[in-house]
Amino acid sequence: MQDTLLSLQHISKNFGEGDVLRDISLDVARGEFVTLLGASGCGKTTTLRMIAGLETPTSGRITIDGVPVFDSEQGIAALKSITVGATIPNIGVDKLKNVMIPLPSMEEQSRVAQKYQATLDEIAMLKLRLERAVNKLHHVFDEESEETNA
Q1: Does residue 131 surpass a pLDDT of 90?
Q2: Given pLDDT bands bounded at 50, 70 and 90, which one contains residue 1?
Q3: Three-state SS string across the chain, please?
Q4: Residue 70 near residue 56 (C-beta atoms within 8 A)
Q5: Predicted pLDDT at 142
Q6: Are 12 and 22 in contact (CB under 8 A)?
Q7: Which residues of 57-81 are buried (b: 16+ CB within 10 A; e: fewer)?
Q8: Model-level pTM?
């Protein structure tokens, strides 16, 4: 039995009179990598926005890790903070200058750098201990081999 992380069951989305998505079902297992691929306007971004809770489906059910975040029959519409992929269709390089990604504060960057360096130092220490243990084992086996041959 697969461990389903994300489940979309019979999802539909209407904007006014137009159906954007009609009866879409999808299960994504934990650890699985999924790509939504299709022509412009086919509903990829709308699907991702519904999974993220930024758009409300017209009908269907969405569960994340078994927890319903949207269910039209039970009246559940919960916003969740989850990470999802997104697409930026038809954007030119000249418009990318308008997209800003905030950097962490200098204090946060410094804290992360110190933690990273401490982790590297710990790995180096563990590697040294492992090398010493392997050398001791080689020494023990060499002595046993000499005693056996004598």
Answers
A1: yes
A2: very low
A3: CCCEEEEEEEEEEEECCEEEEEEEEEEEECCCCCCCCCCCCCCHHHHHHHHHCCCCCCEEEEEECCEEEEECCCCEECCCCCCCCCCCCCCCHHHHCCCCCCCCCHHHHHHHHHHHHHHHHHHHHHHHHHHHHHHHHHHHHHHHHHHHHC
A4: yes
A5: 78
A6: yes
A7: bebbbbbbeeeebbbbeeeeeeeee
A8: 0.50
Residue given tokens 């297992």 in the structure block: 29
What type of residue sits at position 128?
A: L
- Over residues 77-100, mean pLDDT: 51
What is the per-residue pLDDT for 134?
Answer: 92
One-letter identity of residue 84: V
For the record, the structure tokens of 5 come out as 């992380």
State how far the alpha carbon of 47 is from the alpha carbons of 26, 38, 81, 111, 114, in Å: 11, 12, 16, 37, 40
Of residues 44 and 79, which shows the higher confidence score? 44
Tokens, residue 48 = 């991702």
Count of positions (residues) in the chain? 150
